[in-house]
Amino acid sequence: MPKLWNETIEEHRRAVREAVLKVTAALVAEQGLRGVTMSRIAEGTGIGRATLYKYFSDVESILAAWHERRIAGHLEELAALRDGPGSPGTRLTAVLDAYAGIQRRRHGHDPASGAALHRGPHVAHAERRLLRFLGDLLAEGVAAGEVRDDMAPEELAAYCLHALGAAGGLPSEAAARTLVRVTVDGLRPARRA
Amino acid sequence: MPKLWNETIEEHRRAVREAVLKVTAALVAEQGLRGVTMSRIAEGTGIGRATLYKYFSDVESILAAWHERRIAGHLEELAALRDGPGSPGTRLTAVLDAYAGIQRRRHGHDPASGAALHRGPHVAHAERRLLRFLGDLLAEGVAAGEVRDDMAPEELAAYCLHALGAAGGLPSEAAARTLVRVTVDGLRPARRA
């Protein structure tokens, strides 16, 4: 049960929102996107349905809020790896390994509802941020002689994200890591044939 | 003007269909997907609107028929390159160069209508065929020592198609060819780091 009766209305609202998003995350993890309904959220939070509808007009807007937070969490996770120790190449592999894992886990969702969520503007925004920061990391890699210089870093970043989209169809984390190795091998300075 | 009055009804129908798809292709090339309307097709073919509606219930079904044929044409083009001269690696690069060009030209279409077309079952079918034949070509490449053997050929095929999806955002054919080089470099037998 969330602590609903806080000192201020603002805190109260935030607590309700947190409780809703927490229960939503649990429902998605257990039953997939289709398992999330207003009734189950009301039940899981202990918030009455009437109150719930004052906060969110429908289940789609709850899923959108949950997804936006999830995407933001992924970006933070990837940014932490980018800022970690090691050469640009090492950090790039760490970021791409994590991204491939995210892509692979995404695949479990119901494709139709998942596609609807992914058309949201927050996804396009997150992808642009990710392309930019991967591009910066790749530019560092070029400067360090670890990454090929015959293609613009931001174009190489797009190559990485597209290539790792293939992680969605892979059967294991090990296969996803191999996909990252394949992708990263494509980034290495061109060798003489 | 198409030759509409042939010996048999079947030939006549085929001629109408051909004329419609030919005019549709020209309209898409000139004005994009949104430029295709029943009126313009009627005008371009010289077929009355009433007759046109007996063949196709709406412009969406005309676009679907046009797209299905276009995709089939692309598959034939790629299969011819696969069956061309040279080592598996040479033929693979030729196939991927052509595929990247197709992806790049696709980008000119209106994204929303384009996405609707691409949800059609014929696209999924064509993608499966393409994955299968690229997988076969990659397996030949593995046998010839030109392609890495630490990932299944069909998974490498998925990597290729995903990676070349990035061609859609590239500014030139030259950039698309570089993307193919990057992608193919990822396929080479693993080198010691």
TrEMBL record, chains A, B:
It holds the Pfam family TetR_C_43. Keywords: DNA-binding, Transcription, Transcription regulation. SUPFAM superfamilies: Homeodomain-like (SSF46689), Tetracyclin repressor-like, C-terminal domain (SSF48498). Residues 14-74 form the HTH tetR-type domain. Residues 37-56 bind DNA. It comes from the Bacteria. PANTHER family: HTH-TYPE TRANSCRIPTIONAL REGULATOR BETI (PTHR30055:SF234), HTH-TYPE TRANSCRIPTIONAL REGULATOR RUTR (PTHR30055). This is TetR/AcrR family transcriptional regulator. It comes from Streptomyces bullii. The lineage of its organism: Bacteria, Bacillati, Actinomycetota, Actinomycetes, Kitasatosporales.
